[in-house]
Fold these 3 entries.
Entry 1:
Amino acid sequence: MQVTLANWRTAPFNRWAFHHVRELVPSADIPNDPRAVRALPAAPRDFKGLDIEAFLRETDTDGMAIVRRGQLVFERYASGMTDETPHILMSISKSMLGLLIQELGIDVQRRVVDFVPELRNGAYGAASGPIVEYRKATGWNPLGPGETPSDLHAFLGTLQETKPHGGPVHYVSPNSDLLGWVVERATGRRYGELMSERVWKKIGAERSAYITVDRLGAPRCAGGMCTTLRDLARVGQWLIEERPAFLEELETKGDS
């Protein structure tokens, strides 16, 4: 029952691994500000009529929280997780990246190679992999016998063009990691520091978060951010209270 890089994302090993990620993969801190924690008072409500408890058991849900008007009305944990436990967000990490880019005001119309010219001769020179090699490069999968360690930035340079600029949306996780590289190049600062300063401290997080990094420190922005459940709820509350215009913009884009 040993949890390893080879099995940590599969059942039953993921029940432990998903809230002990930094014991398996290198990570970088995303500090909070203990002096400015957003209040999230408990105001429990009775949801027995919805049989939420049965739903949580049947779906192997590690944690669930419901916030209404700034109050925590429902909260449950399983698989050894607690309110103090950072849990991996997987692709919600992409949403956190989007919030950071919006906060930084980076011009999203500029080309990637304006920030990272090393990619000019690859997929991103005109515009966008092998998923296993991608995971090995980010430290999420073990290397095979005789394989040489890679890294995220080197992997991105191997990708070849699949979609033109301005074309249809194509879900490609490495593109999100590339945006993390763009953020660091555009600002001259590390991703974890920026996420801490421009998002995590602003939402009034109660605890520090973290993000997995490759062997050279590049962040896995596509899926590696880990936070407590309550602090993830605070992200939503912050958007409602402080960034309603941003939410309206998202709704408009969704309708279109």
Entry 2:
Amino acid sequence: MLNLSKSSQVKTEANAQEAVHCKLPAGIHRWLHTLLSSLPFKLRINFWNQDSYVFGAEIRETLPQLSLHIGHPGVLRSLILSQDPLVLIDGYLHGLINIEGNLEALIPLIQTHPHIVIKPLQSLQLWVEAYTLPQLPFNLKAMPLKDGQQIHSRDRDKAAIQHHYDLGNLFYQQWLDPLIVYSCAHFEHPEMSLEAAQAAKLDLICRKLKLSPGETLLDIGCGWGALLRWAVQHYGVRGYGITLSQEQLVYNQQQIAQEQLANRLTVELLDYRDLPQQPTFDKIVSVGMVEHVGIKNYPTYFQAALQALKPGGLFLNHGISSSDICNGSSVGERFINRFIFPNGELAQLSTMLSVAEQTGWEIVDVDAWRPHYALTLRHWAENFEQAFDQVASMLGERKARLWHLYLIGCALAFENDYERVYQTLLRSKTDKTWNLPLSRMGWLS
């Protein structure tokens, strides 16, 4: 809830009275009609209870698939003057926009209109009309999160991880599988359950790494520890995990005590840049962590793993990549970075593998999992919807709806090949003797 001073409250009340009698300017209406006429669905927008228009689909007899209620003209003013669609998200979180209908319909809207485009001949009229609309008593222009720290510094990375993962273990338990695996599952067939597909993923990783009893396994960014516990209990290894999430650390410590694994498994709060700089582990794995590293830090990341790996060992790196070059400027990227997942950064697989090779790794195997992540995300979105009342009680209803939209949007991104995910198996170039199976089937047996 907004905390306004007395003077701000007076201004808000006067502003609200002004908004009651404000009509939607004709030039803004024409611009919206042009912008939204090609929508593949019907969109009804109510402007602060003064005007209501339908945009999009031509069949007027059917009901709109989506309805937006903009509660104050200052939202539209801020949108046009800033030319930033994320203003709408800020307006929603402030309670100035209400949505009725299928949230998934918003995804093609964002994809169709990634930027607010105003033609030169329209710009002056729109600017004047927007400027004359009543102003909000606070700034609604969406700005990136800033903390005065260099991006991907140790402190900023830790803050970003805790922003995303420390929403509470109970929050993630509401919609993930029972093991709390927050990464792509592996489906042997489309009807496979999420729980079974996550267990299949954990076992497949262990087999790819050729884990043997007595070996030491490092998990960089171990999450809630499911993979480590699986490897310890099913393959007899000694596990060591690192995370920057305080909530994940607490959960891991509880599970280690409960399952009496203290002599075989350790999890610590540690940055990957502080890993041992000498050969320490027989095998290393990293699942869904490289997205947090940042492209400029790829050399440091791959070097840290290489230094910590014993001769003859393997490193399995599992991470999301982009199908095209990303620079963080798209609406989708900025939405995720601002509201859900700060400081995430994706690169094309070729970029990641080039850095790995330059760092001293030999690429052994590359496995594409894109359809598996689309299925995983659909399961998460469905689970989230079923547990919506519970998660809304933790996050608040509006933030919970943004999370649901995030999961649906990510599912569509993988389904439409905007994003991809790969498991890459690496070994040190200094290991001249081939000590691995001659074919992929050798890992899967």
Entry 3:
Amino acid sequence: MKLRYYIALMFTVLCASCDTSLDIKAAPDLNITTEKTTYKVGEVVNFQIGGDANILTFYSGQIGNDYNFREGRVIPAGTLTLSFSSNTQYGNQPDQFSILTSTNFSGTYNIDEIKKATWTDITSRFTLNMASTTYVSAGEVDLSDLIVEGKPMYFVLRYIYDPAKGVGRTFGIRDFLVKSNTQVGLTTIANQTTAGFALHYFGPKETTGRSGITSTTITLRSNAAGNTADYTEDWCISNGLNVGSQDLGPDRPVKVKGTSEAKVQNFQYTYTTKGNYKVRFIATNASIKEAKTVIKEMDIEVVE
């Protein structure tokens, strides 16, 4: 059966190559015009289409729909920021809380591997609420200088309890948010839930009723009274976050007309962002044997 299939397939291909009815007689006939070349944001651009083609597609020139990036688009790393809110209650021990970043953590989540990584202390870049139980913004801080291209960035909320330094405080963290502002706009890299925080302990740390993570809050605190004679560390570590360049894949065209569809005489498009755009209509006449393509370009300016 397989032999018969391959013989039939070869026969079909040979017939197609010899069948002159599959030849494309001419390239598509295409003409594109507009009433003007400058439009306002939100104004409809009405493209008048003259001629015809089997297939017609459209590139607006905007990000995600730009002919120049049809083979792929890589967005360079943008401005990276971190923000969160914090509160403090109880105790008097100094320097217990810190926030750290690393780009060389191995990704093996145990306390020995976590501590083995190189961590950069960024606590001083923020303004922590050390005086009340009210959650107060610690500020939105630029961390772009810490990006290492090709390396994920990990965050740690570290809490140290040293029995020689007084009564332990309790720290709360909410609204953890990592954002990146790139040429495609402002995007969220991770929030408190998607960052994937997990707790790891150094020393005889109690886990019931002590430091913990909920959907809204990370709470860091020492062991209960009577079990506070030992030095302990809590390392609340995130997943590795991709904060470098982003491969968005190829920009894609918008279909205006397919092979089996009727001739179209106009196509409308609305720009939502000001700028200068190179518009391209791609017209193709094709068979299984060959294809002929014509590209029509025009410049559109969009103003506010």
